[in-house]
Amino acid sequence: MTEFDTVIKDGTIVDGTRLPRYRGDIAIKQGVIAEIGRIDASRGEKVLDATGLVVAPGFVDLHTHYDAQLFWDPHCSISCWHGITSVVIGNCGFGFAPVAPAERERAMLTMTRVEAIPLASMRAGMPWDWESFPEFLDSVERTPKAMNIVPFVPISPILISVLGLEDAKAGRLPTKAEHAQMCQILEQSLDAGGCGWSAQRLPPDGPANVQVDYDGTAMPTDVMHDETCFEFAHVLARRNRGAMQMTMTSGDFTADRHHMEQLAEISGRPLLFNVIQAFDEKPHIHRRNLAWLEDCRRRGVRVYGQGLTTPAGYGFTFEDWNLFDEAHAWREATVGTNAEKLEKLADSARRSALKEIVPYLVLGPFEEIVVTGPATPETEPWRDHTIGLIAEKTGKHPVDAMLDIVVADGLKTEFFSMPPNQSLDHLREIVENPYVLFGVSDGGAHTKFLTAGRFPTEALIRTVRDNQMLSLEDAHWRLSALPAQLAGVGERGVLKVGAPADVIVYDLDNLEILPAEVMHDLPDGEWRRIQRAKGYRYVLVNGEITIEDDEQTQNYSGRLLRHGGVRELSRVAA
Fold first, then answer.
1. What's the pLDDT tens digit per position in 437-450?
2. Domain boundaries, the chain
3. Of 58, 229, 243, 246, which residue is 20 to 30 A from 64 by alpha carbon distance?
4. 483 vs 472: CA distance, rounded Å
5. Contact call for residues 449 and 490 (beta carbons, < 8 A)
6. What is the pLDDT of residues 503-525, one digit of tens each?
7. DSSP labels for 214-268?
8. Which fold has domain 60-313+426-486?
9. H helix runs in 274-397, sequence order
């Protein structure tokens, strides 16, 4: 009888700790790494040949919105195709628990714009066999998974459950008793396995707020009071466990940073700040954020930046597009039914307000947006033209040039734009800070126009292989061990004896991100954009192969990591 379930032979091991790479073997038993070194193949029931390949810990993605998709997609694609073995859900304060049965439809509607998850898919694909957050986790536990799930407790549903939807969205200051009730719900959610809490604070009329409710109004956490945040921070302080995730940009740099520092100091816990992004025409933004993070490090304030390190472009139509919401006039013109949007975008009087502010923060220059999919013979001549070129040829304002095509096509024109973070020099500035995390994949969200879940593969290609910004050892620490520590799943993200066997085996020289595709594979026939990877020989989650030669297997070995999986690991060890 063989001693180990699996032996990975003759790979180049990059263990996630930043120790130098070395040639060796890894033995796995009962989902845990049992031995590392020179291991005879005869000791393994299954032997995986890793000759010429890198063997490393699976990637940990701290920022996803797979809260709905995990119920119909056990692999949490596209993340699974890019070496990710653990994902954190419940980010930005958004989620589906606690939610009373009568409020389920409203909860799903909220996610249709803020995270652009199709309503029909949520209706068809979510079991809704819970009300409380502990019951939600029980449902996730029951659901087959090929990915480890780490749950943040989202704050927005807690605000709504205690204050009511109307008062929560109006920003009413909770009473002392209401604060106590909200903290009790948070405590119960953390007791059930939550690994911290999350919130978005983007004032509705502030700059860069592209995260609003389906009707264009504020999300409850956007108008949450500082006092309420402090109450939640005190909960983590009392427990001395957990982390916070905060998306925050009010326009007042000093006030925002002071608030986040206060949360980190009150709680004594890590705070993950979204987002560190380069804007190539405004480099002072990311440089100012990096200087602040470095100042926090020097003073011992536990604030970490989540970097938007992928320049994945946006393919979109005005049927679903919401990332112009930073501009109030554009937000107002693009909410509602498709018929309502079509009427508003055709209104010449309304367009004067749209011309006054042309969104830039999410996309690059407006004039460089490309028409990639005209929908009618009338608009076909503009295929592969930029908006700027169309405006020049027609003598129109760029806004009129774009929207005349959109209206003629009944909102179905497809556009493509690169985001404003194309500079390799600016990327180098971000990755040179060792405590800025890669990613912000938004996995499970914005699926009709974003494929940022490719970020780990892209990090290995752009920052290691092609441009030598980082060593392979540093890259794997940043992609696995550091995020695992911050998410409270510190036993993962490294290859060591006794650690869970979340392992990737890949060909660095031939690693590749494949072209974007459209797949009609969501519940109720909805579609999404995807990008696969090439070069991952194996991905193992808890010792079982979930990806082999870049294809999914039928192994559902993922786990819900309650409390970071600490209790689950103790049971395995016993």
1. 998 999 999 999 99
2. 60-313+426-486, 314-417
3. 229
4. 16
5. no
6. 999 999 999 999 999 999 999 99
7. TTSPPPGGGG--HHHHHHHHHHHHHHT--EEEEEE--S-HHHHHHHHHHHHHHH-
8. TIM Barrel (3.20.20)
9. 284-299, 328-333, 338-346, 348-356, 387-394
